[in-house]
Amino acid sequence: MAQGQYINNDATVFEDAQALMALNKNILLKGPTGSGKTKLAETLSETVDIPMHQVNCSVDLDAESLLGFKTIQTNDKGEQEIVFIDGPVIQAMRQGHILYIDEINMAKPETLPILNGVLDYRRKLTNPFTGEVIHAAPGFNVIAAINEGYIGTLPMNEALKNRFVVIQVDYIDGSILSDVIRQQSRLDDMSLIKQIVQFNSDLRTMTKQGQISEDAASIRALIDLSDLATVMPVRRAIQRTIIDKLEDEREQQAIENAVELNF
């Protein structure tokens, strides 16, 4: 794959996601934070050559964040008029683009039902701000990502979840992770990359045992660590990119122990 594209030990993850897009199925990418869900969506967008509009969910997400808002503009005649500025959902629908909804279970449950008609066979939306009925143009697809059990997340509404086909996206490891570090970071020292991959394996074991949070073992953090390791000692790079982000002293100590073992 080209530099910066999504790679996984399980090739069926990308293959199935691409097949689901061809069938115009809504895709729900389910997996831990930093496992590459957004990178997978971006790679799908690049592969099918269809632009992607992104919604980042939070408890503050409201209908305006999804659909757009009214504002006052001056027209060609110098007169002021009220116009509606399309948000990411309507932009993607009108243009036949991909809509990516990140961390969909961070949104308040009462916010998302507005998308029910967008996510089912109708592929349409009645804009509550203007009354306009919008039908999605050909090519429109929806991809969402979910971090289950993550702090701040809520159980996903079953009626909403039933509108998606789920693909599990897990962390990568071994030679695949080594390839990703070489392709997506500035580090080319293979012996150091091998040590970092082993270090990450130890972190993954600790996350499964509940000793440290999933953030500490994310691919994102490893890429940052690898970049910093080209300009400073690897131990200091780990301090900056992983340890100092954690607030729990026990987690910090657990990672420092893994550093001692690997470096």
UniProtKB/TrEMBL annotation:
Lineage: superkingdom: Bacteria
Q: Which UniProt keywords apply?
A: ATP-binding, Nucleotide-binding
Any Pfam family matching the protein: CbbQ_C
Any keyword ATP-binding? yes
Where is the AAA+ ATPase domain positioned along the sequence?
Answer: 23-170
Which InterPro entries does the record associate with it? Answer: AAA+_ATPase, ATPase_dyneun-rel_AAA, CbbQ/NirQ/NorQ/GpvN, CbbQ_C, ClpA/B, P-loop_NTPase
Q: Does the keyword Nucleotide-binding apply?
A: yes
The entry lists its GO molecular-function terms as: ATP binding; ATP hydrolysis activity
Q: Which family does the entry's similarity section mention?
A: Belongs to the CbbQ/NirQ/NorQ/GpvN family.
The record ties this protein, via PANTHER family, to: MAGNESIUM-CHELATASE SUBUNIT CHLD (PTHR42759:SF1), MOXR FAMILY PROTEIN (PTHR42759)
For this entry, the protein name equals AAA+ ATPase domain-containing protein
Q: Which organism is it from?
A: Staphylococcus argensis
